[in-house]
Write a structure and sequence with these properties.
This protein is mainly α and 113 residues long. It contains 2 helices and no strands. The N and C termini lie far apart (99 Å). It holds the Pfam family KxDL.
Length: 113
Amino acid sequence: MEETEKEIESMRAASEEVSRQFKTLIDANDLDSLKHLQLLILGRLQDSNAVLSHFNEYSEHCFAEVSSDFSRNTRMLKSMKSDLDYIFQKLRSMKAKIMATYPDAFPDESTRE
């Protein structure tokens, strides 16, 4: 048991010595300057975080306002597309029937499909 306590004491003494040596390598003013800069950066990051949080809340509110209109308009556009597809299909069918009955009805090649 005594050897373990001696080892612990020697490790503690060694770590204190290393710590003291590191303190002599770095100037206290430099450490204070670094600490001050870190606090400034922390403040700026907190301000940026607050601005981004506010923007996210605003964006969420705006999205909630327009999402129902967007969904309704999307459904309407899909319905209009299917209606137009049906109309163009009927027009092609009618045009084919007219072309079969009256081949000279559309002399222009640009109207043929």
